[in-house]
Design a protein that fits this description.
Order of helices and strands: HHHHH
Number of strands: 0
Helix content: 55-70%
Oligomer: single chain
Structural class: mainly alpha
C-alpha cells in the first residue's frame, strides 16, 4: 500500500507542477517561439493630397514679396493673378491633352498671365518679376556699381 500511495502522490505532484512549469517556460521565452497574439493589419499608406492653386501661391508669395519688395496692394494683385493662372495650369494637366495642344494652351495661359501682370503692376515691379521668373525664383540682385575715386 505504501508503494501505491507513493506512486499516487508522485502522479498528483507531476500533474500539479506541470502548469507552474509551463507558465515559467512561457515567461522566460516570451519573445521567441510561437506568437499567441493576432498580428495587426498595417494601415495603407495615404498618398499626399496634391496642393491646390491657393496653397501653391501662398507658399511662393513670401519669396516673391521679399525678392520684389511688394507692398500689400501689389501683393494682393499678384496673388490673385497667380492663383487664377495656376488653377488653369492644374486643370490643363488634368485634361491630359496631346503634347502639341498642351504646349499651345500653356503658351496661351502664359501670354494672358503676362498681359495681366503688365497691366496690373508698375513697370519696375513688372520687369523685376519677369527677371525673377527667368532666374527660376532666385532673388533678383540689384546692380550697384561702385564709383571709382579719382586721385588727383
Amino acid at each position: 500500500m505504501r508503494t501505491i500511495f507513493k506512486t499516487f502522490a508522485l502522479i498528483i505532484l507531476f500533474f500539479g507542477m506541470t502548469p507552474v512549469l509551463n507558465a515559467q517556460y512561457n515567461q522566460a521565452y516570451r519573445n521567441s517561439g510561437r506568437r499567441r497574439t493576432i498580428p495587426q493589419a498595417q494601415e495603407p499608406i495615404k498618398k499626399a493630397e496634391p496642393l491646390t492653386a491657393d496653397e501653391m501661391v501662398a507658399a511662393e508669395m513670401p519669396k516673391i514679396t521679399e525678392a520684389l519688395s511688394l507692398n500689400d496692394f501689389e501683393q494682393a494683385v499678384l496673388s490673385s493673378i497667380l492663383t487664377k493662372y495656376v488653377q488653369q495650369r492644374i486643370e490643363l494637366k488634368i485634361l491630359n491633352l496631346s503634347p502639341e495642344k498642351t504646349r499651345e494652351a500653356r503658351e496661351n495661359i502664359d501670354r494672358k498671365q503676362d498681359e495681366e501682370f503688365k497691366a496690373s503692376l508698375p513697370e519696375d515691379k513688372y520687369d523685376a518679376l519677369i527677371e525673377y521668373q527667368q532666374n527660376g525664383g532666385k532673388k533678383v540682385k540689384s546692380k550697384k556699381r561702385k564709383k571709382k575715386k579719382n586721385k588727383s
